[in-house]
Amino acid sequence: MNRLSLRLFALAALCAFPARVHSQLPPLTVPKGLLRFSIAGTFDNYDERFRNGVLEPSASDFVRDSLGSNFFPGLSVAEGQLRRITGVAALKLNLGQSTSSSLINVGTAHLGLAYGLTRHLTLFGNVPIVRVRVQSLFSLNNKKSNLGFNPADAAFGTPGVAAQFLTELRTATTALQSRVTSGDFDTDPNKKATAQRAVSDAQALDSLVALSPLLPLIGSDIGQALNQAITGLGSTFSNLLVSGFPAAAPPFPTKALNDTTFLTFISNPKGPIQGLPWPEPIISGLGDMELGAMYEWLDHPVTATRRVGLHSVIQAIVRLRTGILASPSRFFAVNLGDRQPDVEVNLVTDASYRRIGVRLQAGYNLQLPGNQERRISNPTQPIPYITALAALTRDPGDVIQVQVLPFFHLAPMLALFGGVQYWMKGIDKYAYVAGQPPIPGLDPNFLSVDSKSNATVFSMGMSYAHTGIGHDGQVRNPLDASLAYEQVQASSAGRVPASRVVRFSLRLYTKIR
Fold first, then answer.
1. Does 381 lie in the same domain as 283?
2. Residue 451 lies in a domain
């Protein structure tokens, strides 16, 4: 039999089915007195995301041609001190060039119960169990680095290495400050300005050597400029007749950070970041549980005299704060849930004519505030110092979504479907919780950057829905199942994973006696 004959045979077989279709897509409500058990699963995978309409790798925030204060905001303090001491305004600290990638796998098992309280009213609950696996890679090329561990740092060096230098520096600085305060230079404004500048530079040098975990490499351009500046500062103290300035410069690092020592910098419990090392462990736990009700307000099935079937359901969902948030010390991690309450309302309408139909859905999700611990930073700076950690209130933006899902019946209980969904979410708002002291210079709404988002999602799949009425006319328990594939096709705002999702469900019904 050739291909044309096969196609004609298939078309004839489809047309041979009775015109009346016994069911459409799997129903939302449950017949009165029946209890529905549902087992469903979703498998979500992505290694890319949309950021304000541009598709990019999901780990793009970790990729830098020059890894400095643009990545670690805490380095800006040392950068400012060095600019002041050396007088090089364009000075930039750099740990090297970073590359990174991440593949995120999120699997969710949904266990659900629904009960038909009346012919039109159904109550339901859903328990999601989530498993997250993040496969992350991070590599540091230090060829262009000008930074290394401070040899005098308590966490990464040897405490006391610079003790003599700091003692002599502080003694000389105190002596010069005392002379400025007592008015020794008041008769010579230029000399007084020089003395004041020298005190300020010496204090910046003290802070840099004593507090910064990273210092310029001894052979780098910045290291050489710093050495020259220290020598010049010593001459200034001598010219101002203040003795005791250190005769030798403090020790400077000789080695740049590599992949191993960079991870040490991230994870050392006494360091400035105090994060947890990667790769991330596999995490499993509860997602955000759901409770809700559905009311079928319109039920016009196909009959001998009615060729168009209409069904419409109003669905209300309350989402609970049961999901687990990723640790703020894990920088590639993904949450198991949002862990803040939601109230969602959806209107779902099915319309069918012969073998074709469409499911239309529109919904509004009111996302309510919830508390969480976060490190405050712009998302482009994904590894903030521990000093940025604070207790915050997050008020997520509300979500509006619409979906059009056409379907075609291959058989009375078997349908193919494909559709498109569009959703948009408002901007998140953050604030310190009551009792949390504000962190100077850190606005919680740094975390709101790129939180206003939208996406267009395409889907396709197959569903089976048996009403429970057999060919012999006997009434048995219904059964339905579905298999679908979804893909985020486009986004013009915010950070949206370019997810590829497989969904399946199996729902069994039994009568409560």
1. yes
2. yes
**Which tokens go with 28?**
């939302």
CATH code for the domain of 311: 2.40.160.40
Task: Give the span between the Cα atoms of 152 and 225, in whole angstroms.
Answer: 20
* Confidence (pTM): 0.87
For the chain, the average pLDDT equals 91
Edge-first strand order for the sheet with 54-57 is: 54-57, 48-51, 495-497
Q: Which residue range is the domain that position 178 belongs to?
A: 147-255
Q: Which of 186, 221, 255 is the last residue of a domain?
A: 255
**pLDDT tens string 440-480:** 999 999 999 999 999 999 999 999 998 777 666 666 788 99
pLDDT: is 306 or 431 the higher one? Answer: 431
User: 356 and 478, same structural domain?
Assistant: yes
CA–centroid distance for 285 within its chain = 18
Judge whether 432 and 373 are in contact, CB under 8 Å.
no
Question: What whole-number distance in Å separates Cα of residue 266 and Cα of residue 181?
Answer: 42
State the SS3 of 298-367.
EEECCCCCCCEEEEEEEEEEEECCCCCCCCCCCCCCCCCCCCCCEEEEEEEEEEEECCEEEEEEEEEEEE
Structure tokens at 124: 């339901």
